[in-house]
Design a protein that fits this description.
Elements (H helix, E strand, L loop, with lengths): L2 H7 L13 H12 L10 E6 L2 H8 L9 H6 L2 E7 L6 E2 L2 E2 H19 L3 E2 L7 H8 L6 E9 L13 H4 L12
The protein binds flavin mononucleotide (FMN).
């Protein structure tokens, strides 16, 4: 797929088919994440690939049942969890780069999924302490986000975005970039 088509095609998908995901496709996604840029190339990220129903069920208990993404975590055959060690990144001028590093790697992974016809949905609002217990992740690692992974059982229209002139300025703050 053309890069611009991948960007357009990626949507947060919350309904999945039960069909398994080919390990080769997951490997392509993990490699895309591995190639992401990071602060001083420290690569603070780690990923967990979860397929067991028992673990997927346990993961849902760390979310509010009102979270719109929870059902997808049971439907999708795979959950990929994004972890990051702040000690493998740095804080400069009051900016914690580990969040940025981890987010970049995860988005590489998500776009590689879309490129291969797979669906994902970033999910971040879970109880991190509970998730540590469920997954047995060492304390020094933050649990940043996760995504269900599988074949989509829904098509979604793009969600609205802010207008370009609201977000892209030229020399003068607030003055739309005109190209
Ligand atoms: C950091 C982050 C955390 C998110 N957490 C959740 C979540 O907990 N549950 C959920 O259903 N969607 C979650 N989303 C998905 C957003 O709601 C979604 O990206 C946004 O509405 C735009 O829709 P789109 O991804 O289809 O373009 C999250 C997205 C990001 C980037």
């Amino acid at each position: 797929m053309e890069f611009s088509d991948v960007v357009k095609k990626r949507r947060s998908i919350r309904a999945y088919k039960p069909d398994p995901v080919e390990p080769e496709k997951i490997a392509v996604m993990l490699e895309a994440a591995r190639q992401a840029p990071s602060w001083r190339n420290l690569q603070c990220w780690r990923f967990m690939v979860i397929t067991s129903e028992e673990k997927r069920k346990a993961i849902t208990t760390t979310f509010s049942p009102h979270n719109p993404g929870v059902k997808a975590l049971l439907q999708a055959p795979v959950i990929i969890v994004l972890c990051a060690n702040p000690a493998e990144s740095e804080n400069w001028y009051n900016k914690d780069f580990y969040m940025l590093d981890a987010g970049l790697a995860m988005e590489h992974l998500v776009l590689a999924a879309t490129d291969q016809g797979l669906a994902t949905c970033w999910q971040g609002s879970f109880d991190e302490e509970k998730m540590h217990e469920v997954l047995g992740v060492p304390e020094e690692f933050r649990l940043i986000a996760l995504t269900p992974l599988g074949y989509p059982a829904q098509e979604r229209d793009p969600r609205p975005r802010k207008a370009m002139e609201q977000i892209a300025f030229g020399e003068q703050w607030g003055e739309p970039w005109k190209g």
